[in-house]
């Protein structure tokens, strides 16, 4: 689905997979936001790139919002196609070693996680240049230690790729928080990250799952913080320890 002139959604619920993947066409090649879980999602991405004529350019960069399996599972496939893989420094080791921080245990029956050989570590406030576009890295730990949001200015709009830090309901009326059961989930950090985002100006919010929100992004960010203050601080959550499950 084409969202803006150079911005496309190439995987998501409408295509039969639960993870949202975005592609940005630039002068130097395609930038992917996240990679999806497994081979089936990879084929969905490839079919949609072909449909929009984006397969005429190579995938130059993959920007990961965080290391969890359904966001990084196909990294090794795109790395084999010569794409550079970017991830926050706190999680670069996870995708290179396939540690339990990948949360592979959430997807029983999937192919084993395939680590990447090399990746480029990024930190808060850094910028990733891709042709005419500039992606600013916003470190938003909490959902995972290395969760980030990528901020992009396009067509006079501020676009945020929020991964699982900020999700949205079906009509984009309310913001929602991501899964709170990861091995490195940290509630206080998550609340601090959401508070940082609460007053941020944004037009378009593109989460890692569910609905894409093409307007009133700032209202959604603020609403997510307010909702999290109610839910995260009053409802218990369980962190899953993979060591006790599989070793």
What key attributes describe this structure?
alpha/beta, single chain, globular, disordered C terminus, Metallo-beta-lactamase, Chain A, 247 residues, five-stranded mixed sheet, 7 helices, seven-stranded mixed sheet
Offer a quick outline of the entry.
25% of the residues lie in helices and 26% in strands. It has seven helices and 14 strands.
Report on this structure:
With 247 residues, this protein is an alpha/beta fold. It has a single domain (2-123, 133-241), classed as Ribonuclease Z/Hydroxyacylglutathione hydrolase-like (Metallo-beta-lactamase, Chain A, 4-Layer Sandwich), CATH 3.60.15. It has helices at 39-51, 69-72, 75-80, 92-97, 187-198, 217-231, 242-246, and strands at residues 2-4, 7-11, 21-26, 29-33, 59-63, 84-88, 120-122, 127-130, 133-139, 148-154, 157-163, 167-168, 175-176, 204-207. The chain has a seven-stranded mixed beta sheet. Strand 10 and strand 11 form a beta hairpin. The longest helix is centred in the last third of the chain and has 15 residues, at 217-231.
């Amino acid at each position: 689905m084409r969202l803006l002139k150079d911005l496309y959604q190439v995987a998501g619920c409408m295509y039969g997979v639960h993870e949202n993947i975005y592609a940005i066409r630039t002068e130097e090649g395609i930038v992917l936001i996240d990679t999806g879980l497994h081979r089936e999602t990879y084929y969905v991405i490839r079919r949609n790139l072909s449909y929009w004529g984006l397969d005429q350019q190579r995938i130059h960069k993959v920007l990961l919002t965080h290391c969890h399996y359904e966001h990084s599972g196909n990294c090794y496939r795109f790395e084999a196609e010569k794409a550079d893989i970017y991830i926050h420094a706190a999680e670069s080791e996870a995708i290179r070693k396939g540690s339990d921080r990948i949360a592979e245990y959430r997807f029983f029956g999937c192919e084993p996680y395939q680590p990447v050989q090399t990746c480029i570590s990024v930190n808060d406030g850094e910028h990733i240049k891709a042709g005419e576009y500039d992606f600013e890295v916003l470190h938003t730990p909490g959902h995972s230690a290395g969760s980030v949001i990528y901020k992009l200015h396009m067509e006079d709009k501020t676009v945020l790729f929020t991964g699982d830090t900020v999700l949205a309901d079906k009509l984009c009326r309310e913001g929602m928080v991501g899964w709170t059961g990861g091995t490195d989930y940290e509630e206080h950090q998550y609340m601090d990250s959401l508070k940082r985002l609460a007053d941020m100006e944004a037009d378009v919010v593109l989460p890692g799952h569910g609905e894409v929100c093409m307007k009133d992004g700032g209202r959604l960010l603020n609403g997510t913080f307010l909702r999290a203050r109610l839910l995260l601080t009053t409802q218990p959550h369980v962190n899953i320890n993979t060591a006790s499950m599989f070793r």
